[in-house]
Amino acid sequence: MKIDLNTCKAILFGVAVGDALGVPVEFKSRQEISRQPVTDMIGYGTYNKPPGTFSDDSSLTFCLAESIASGFSLEGTARNFVNWRYGNYWTADNEVFDVGMTTQHAIDTLVKGTRPDLAGDFDAHSNGNGSLMRILPLLVYISDKPIAERYQLVKTVSSITHGHVRSAIACFYYLEFALAILNGGEKFSIYNNLQKEVADYLVSIEMSQYERDIFERLLVDRVDLIPEAKIQSSGYVLHTLEASIWCLLNTDNYRDAVLKAVNLGSDTDTTAAVTGGLAALLYGYENIPEDWRTQLARKNDIEDLAERMFSSLK
Q1: Which interval of the chain is the signal sequence (predicted)?
Q2: Pick from 258, 274, 246, 233: which is nearest to 28 by CA?
Q3: Cα separation, 248 vs 262, whole angstroms
Q4: Neighbour-count burial for 136-167, b at 16+ CB within 10 Å, e otherwise
Q5: Which end of the chain is less enclosed by CB atoms within 10 A, N or C?
């Protein structure tokens, strides 16, 4: 498996395009959206932003990518997060217009000098999707490492904002899925293989039965066969992960995958960002509709970041 420039572009544009598609309808219910489903890149809506505006999901993804591009460090990543929140770094239009409560609290904790791996809340009620939504660029850094090291790095990077083990497991599952895509796997084979591989690894590190059971839909069941009405799309990390895998398994191209995610309603930008990252890796950067890529805010800057992230691997 070799990571090329298009892989790096797929990671960044896959997340950001999905995010931008969801921004205008964030917080709208599924029922509300169903009356006028999203079928294309639109603007304004929830935040009154023009088409192609990405949110905190992409900004924090780019902050992590910047750290990787310049020689990954936890401290550098944390500094970038603080710079985003209080310096508008990597924002779409020089304004932070959305930030999760858990992420906000962690960033303020960082500002006070707390070590990055201890900044995120460790409370079970602090399992929003704020670390999952930004974790994908880490794939570039961990792809050649053994599973124990992959897990530890994922857990540590999640912990900058989300310290509970449930968020770490969600991020780990997501990146293991992404890594299997990189290795040429077919999506249903990947899903089936991860049921054993991730489950076995969690047992090997003596993860509690309680936490393992929470991931039953992904590690035991057929999530793709669950009816849409029973797929939730809130800001809870498990809901976002389940919904993104459900969208990926029930579509066969990038466009349909991210639109399905957006039209689930509620946390539309994050569900689509998380779905979009995997879909872009699975179908390729070129499968992201060109008109969506063209409309994306800071498109040239994102391309430059992808090139620098790729160059860091050489």
Answers
A1: none
A2: 233
A3: 13
A4: bbbbbbbbeeebeebbebbbbbbbbbbbbbbb
A5: C
Q: What is the CA radius of gyration of the chain?
A: 18
The b-or-e profile of 218-232 (16+ CB within 10 A means b, else e) is bbeeebeeeeeeebb
Encode pLDDT of 131-146 as tens digits. Answer: 999 999 999 999 999 9
pTM surpassing 0.70?
Answer: yes
Q: What is the CATH number of the domain that holds 29?
A: 1.10.4080.10
Q: Output phi, psi for 235, to 5 deg.
A: -85, 5
For 95, the domain range is 5-311
Cα 256 versus chain centre, distance = 18
Please state the domain count of the chain. Answer: 1
Give the residue ranges of the chain where pLDDT is below 50. Answer: none
Helix, strand or coil for residue 162? strand
Q: If you search the block for the tokens 């968020």, which residue do you land on?
A: 167
From the CB of residue 207, how many other CB atoms can be counted at a distance below 10 Å? 16
CB 1 within 8 A of CB 299: no
